[in-house]
Amino acid sequence: MFKKIFKNMSQDNSEKVEKEITHEQIVNDDTTNTADAATEAGIGSAEELTEEEKLREDLAAEKDKFLRLFAEFENYKKRTSKERIDLFKTANQDVLQSLLPVLDDFDRALVQIAKSEDDVLFKGVELIHNKLKDTLVSKGLEQVEIKAGDAFNADFAEAITSIPAPTDKLKGKIVDVIEKGYKLGDKIIRFPKVVLGN
């Protein structure tokens, strides 16, 4: 009888244990499944974030490329417009340079005619000289302002010779201007030729 009772109790306990084990397995399985689901959802959202971040990075890179390209294009426009303006300023440089000897001849002629007593001739030649000079100035030609007594600057004048200075004040300075210099805009197209005192 004790055996029967013991056997019944063993069966009840084993059933109870089995039920508990089964209940624990179910709970554990649910927890595992939930954790797996959460992990999968986490991975999925992480992938979505990664794709979103990747798209943001791509967008930022494209935006950066666009801004750089736009800046380069603006620089190109500024550079070409500046080059075009410079070209217009100096387009007639060759023509103006070829007219400079004519202007020099007019200057010399005026000096010689002023020595004569013929005022009508002087005024006529002076009128033509001024008209030519005004036309050249309207095209951008300017005379380089340099005169005897100025300090010599190799950036603005060309020394062709040096002579003993007539006075101590002219030592190392310009004694005489042999040929006038001219510039077109900021560019010197013919340097003045000068004589230095030593």
Automatic annotation (TrEMBL):
<keyword id="KW-0963">Cytoplasm</keyword>
<dbReference type="InterPro" id="IPR000740">
    <property type="entry name" value="GrpE"/>
</dbReference>
<dbReference type="GO" id="GO:0005737">
    <property type="term" value="C:cytoplasm"/>
</dbReference>
<keyword id="KW-0346">Stress response</keyword>
<feature type="compositionally biased region" description="Low complexity">
    <location>
        <begin position="28"/>
        <end position="39"/>
    </location>
</feature>
<feature type="region of interest" description="Disordered">
    <location>
        <begin position="24"/>
        <end position="49"/>
    </location>
</feature>
<comment type="similarity">
    <text>Belongs to the GrpE family.</text>
</comment>
<dbReference type="InterPro" id="IPR009012">
    <property type="entry name" value="GrpE_head"/>
</dbReference>
<protein>
    <recommendedName>
        <fullName>Protein GrpE</fullName>
    </recommendedName>
</protein>
<comment type="function">
    <text>Participates actively in the response to hyperosmotic and heat shock by preventing the aggregation of stress-denatured proteins, in association with DnaK and GrpE. It is the nucleotide exchange factor for DnaK and may function as a thermosensor. Unfolded proteins bind initially to DnaJ; upon interaction with the DnaJ-bound protein, DnaK hydrolyzes its bound ATP, resulting in the formation of a stable complex. GrpE releases ADP from DnaK; ATP binding to DnaK triggers the release of the substrate protein, thus completing the reaction cycle.</text>
</comment>
<dbReference type="GO" id="GO:0000774">
    <property type="term" value="F:adenyl-nucleotide exchange factor activity"/>
</dbReference>
<dbReference type="GO" id="GO:0051082">
    <property type="term" value="F:unfolded protein binding"/>
</dbReference>
<keyword id="KW-0143">Chaperone</keyword>
<dbReference type="InterPro" id="IPR013805">
    <property type="entry name" value="GrpE_CC"/>
</dbReference>
<dbReference type="GO" id="GO:0042803">
    <property type="term" value="F:protein homodimerization activity"/>
</dbReference>
<dbReference type="GO" id="GO:0006457">
    <property type="term" value="P:protein folding"/>
</dbReference>
<dbReference type="Pfam" id="PF01025">
    <property type="entry name" value="GrpE"/>
</dbReference>
<dbReference type="GO" id="GO:0051087">
    <property type="term" value="F:protein-folding chaperone binding"/>
</dbReference>
<comment type="subunit">
    <text>Homodimer.</text>
</comment>
